[in-house]
Each structure stands twice: as C-alpha cells, then as structure tokens.
Amino acid sequence: MEERKVLVAGGNLLQAHTWKGLLEACGIHVELRGEALLGGIGELPTGMQNVELWVGESQYASAQVQLNALDVESPQWQCVQCHETNEGSFELCWQCSSERSESHN
C-alpha cells in the first residue's frame, strides 16, 4: 500500500469537498479525514478539529499543482441579462442564474 501525505489541513468542510471533487476529476485519489470529528467542536481540542485531504505520495506533486491552479484569480464578469457583477469563478450569474458566455466581460 502506498504511503499517503497530508495535502491540506484545516479550512472548512465545503471547501474540502470542493477540492476533493476537483482533484478526483483530475484522476487524483483523495481521502478526506476529520469530517466526523466536526460534531465535537467545542468539546474536542482544536488540534483534532481539522479537516484534512490526504493523497498518495506518487500523486502529491500533481495534486499541489492542481490546487495552486485553483488559487489563480479569474477576473470578474458582468451578466448581460441583469448587469450584475459576478466573481470570475462563477459559471452562472448569482442574481439571475444566466449562464456565463463569450459575450460576458
């Protein structure tokens, strides 16, 4: 069995699941640890409350590259339907749910 390494520790559960899904879509096997311990917030020591993403050593470098690519900020865009400004990571307008297209700036 291959040795595993902690890729990310801390953060929130939603972010951890998002990263896990994106990494798995790239063919990287990810193990999420600590999720069940979140129910003990306030009862457990803070060091035990971390959500961690673990990957195999052979996929560690590739996983780091993928996570670093997620940190690159995309420019904001304006919806052509309702003219609302949206974050670059959004594929749908948060206001009207219109899809982002080439005509969005």
From TrEMBL:
Keywords: Metal-binding, Zinc, Zinc-finger. It comes from the Bacteria. Residues 73-102 form the RanBP2-type domain. The keyword Signal does not apply. One of its GO terms (molecular function) is zinc ion binding. This is DUF2007 domain-containing protein. It comes from Shewanella oncorhynchi. The lineage of its organism: Bacteria, Pseudomonadati, Pseudomonadota, Gammaproteobacteria, Alteromonadales.
